[in-house]
């Protein structure tokens, strides 16, 4: 089996010009209520006070006679009638409590044209993160990334020379998670297709995930362990030459990973659980931490199916997930077989219950809305739902998912993105950000699993290193 990891695409190997018009505000198409809406205590935590980017590439449809910019702009205005809090501005009250001032001012929108075709992206194998010239496809308007008193969404629609287009979206994470953003974008898609109302009506109801009175923390929540400033700086890779790469895991790669596991455990584990344990173990080996250092796996768990008393409405678009953490030393992860990591992943996934979520909301108000600990941490989030954003006559995206590896000042995060290769093979693309030397070792670790190019399999280590260096 050949591990297919193309060389990273840089702005030098794929350059193009983007002509942007000035940013404008798109406000609701009809008058909306002016009110103050409190966020939930799951929304309102320090670790979510940032904007997260996603990007969607759509092919040209010769039967589509409409301009995608005009269609999406109009659909956004209609969608914001229903999702009107997103057109407001975040304010901070006593004890740093966040609320939305529903001003109706609108979200930021940028119209653009690129001297580039979708085929050129595909020819360069550039339809996976890190995207070349990403900042051109999602321009950072000055002041727009502020958490307070700024638009909560920024959207840039860029027409391509071939008739296709790129829709890049950045959203303030405290207002919504991936599932909530998908609901919003699917409603935009429905209006773009000519609908007059959303199929799933949006629901605010943030009080359903607010702290109890009195607050009563019943779980340990080690994901919020206190960390020193030095530990945080080390976790962020400050001073290191960080590089980003994407890795494709199709059926053949997943079969190879499962062969590292006992059959009874492999058969009872999902692809996401299996891949997460694999990424955690081999990334740790590449980093070469102190053997006694605690390494953390933060596994994002959607809590919507866990909540029953009461359940969250289908249209709930707030944050409804947890950051449960698995912890093991560097020595345990790298010296014990893969099943050790997998069992920890399965345990932490099952730890998220309804009571866990209630306890988490209580922790936020009793501990001053702490940030999750990033020391020795690797965060995994499954955002494959973005591949289903069917945009009217343009259909599903060629690529729909996260725009980068890492978020804000924490590069130690990866996202699972649904991906289909040009020959039709489907799988998961995982962007990874590591220090340069650790990335070389990570590729070598994967090479040893998938290609058998290490010395133990009859090839010299220098030959493996030569292959790695040529692909970086």
UniProtKB/TrEMBL annotation:
The keyword DNA repair does not apply. InterPro entries: CAT-like_dom_sf, Plant_acyltransferase. It comes from the Eukaryota. The keyword Transferase applies. One of its GO terms (molecular function) is transferase activity. Keywords: Transferase. Belongs to the plant acyltransferase family. This is Uncharacterized protein. The lineage of its organism: Eukaryota, Viridiplantae, Streptophyta, Embryophyta, Tracheophyta.
């Amino acid at each position: 089996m050949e591990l297919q990891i193309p060389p990273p695409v840089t702005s030098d190997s794929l350059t193009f010009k983007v002509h942007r018009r000035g940013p404008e505000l798109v406000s609701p198409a009809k008058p909306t209520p002016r009110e103050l809406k409190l966020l939930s205590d799951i929304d309102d935590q320090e670790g979510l006070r940032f904007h997260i980017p996603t990007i969607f590439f759509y092919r040209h449809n010769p039967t589509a006679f409409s301009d995608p910019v005009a269609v999406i702009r109009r659909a956004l205005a209609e969608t914001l009638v229903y999702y009107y809090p997103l057109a407001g501005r975040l304010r901070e009250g006593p004890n740093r409590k966040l609320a939305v001032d529903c001003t109706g001012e609108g979200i930021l929108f940028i119209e653009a044209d690129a001297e580039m075709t979708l085929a050129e992206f595909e020819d360069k194998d550039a339809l996976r993160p890190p995207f070349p010239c990403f900042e051109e496809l999602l321009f950072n308007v000055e002041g727009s990334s502020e958490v307070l008193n700024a638009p909560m969404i920024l959207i840039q629609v860029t027409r391509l020379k071939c008739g296709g287009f790129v829709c890049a979206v950045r959203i303030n994470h405290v207002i919504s998670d991936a599932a909530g953003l998908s609901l919003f974008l699917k409603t935009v898609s429905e209006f773009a297709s000519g609908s007059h109302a959303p199929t799933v009506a949006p629901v605010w109801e943030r009080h359903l995930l607010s702290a109890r009175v009195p607050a009563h923390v019943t779980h340990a929540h080690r994901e919020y362990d206190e960390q020193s400033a030095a530990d945080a700086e080390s976790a962020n890779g400050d001073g290191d030459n960080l590089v980003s790469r994407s890795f494709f895991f199709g059926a053949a790669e997943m079969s190879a990973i499962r062969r590292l596991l006992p059959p009874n455990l492999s058969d009872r584990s999902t692809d996401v659980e299996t891949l997460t344990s694999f990424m955690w173990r081999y990334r740790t080996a590449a980093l070469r931490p102190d053997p006694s250092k605690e390494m953390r796996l933060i596994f994002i768990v959607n809590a919507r199916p866990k909540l029953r008393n009461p359940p969250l409405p289908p249209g709930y678009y707030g944050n409804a997930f947890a950051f449960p953490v698995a912890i093991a030393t560097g020595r345990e992860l790298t010296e014990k077989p893969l099943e050790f990591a997998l069992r920890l992943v399965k345990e932490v996934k099952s730890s998220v219950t309804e009571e866990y979520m209630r306890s988490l909301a209580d922790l936020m108000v009793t501990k001053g809305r702490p940030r999750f600990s990033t020391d020795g941490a690797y965060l995994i989030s499954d955002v494959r739902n973005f591949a289903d954003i069917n945009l009217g006559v343009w259909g599903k995206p060629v690529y729909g998912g996260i725009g980068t590896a890492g978020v804000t000042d924490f590069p130690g995060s990866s996202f699972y993105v649904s991906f289909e290769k040009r020959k039709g093979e489907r799988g998961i693309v995982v962007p990874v950000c590591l220090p340069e030397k650790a990335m070389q070792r990570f590729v070598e670790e994967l090479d040893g699993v998938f290609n058998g190019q290490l010395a133990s399999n009859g090839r010299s280590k220098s030959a493996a290193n030569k292959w790695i260096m040529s692909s970086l």
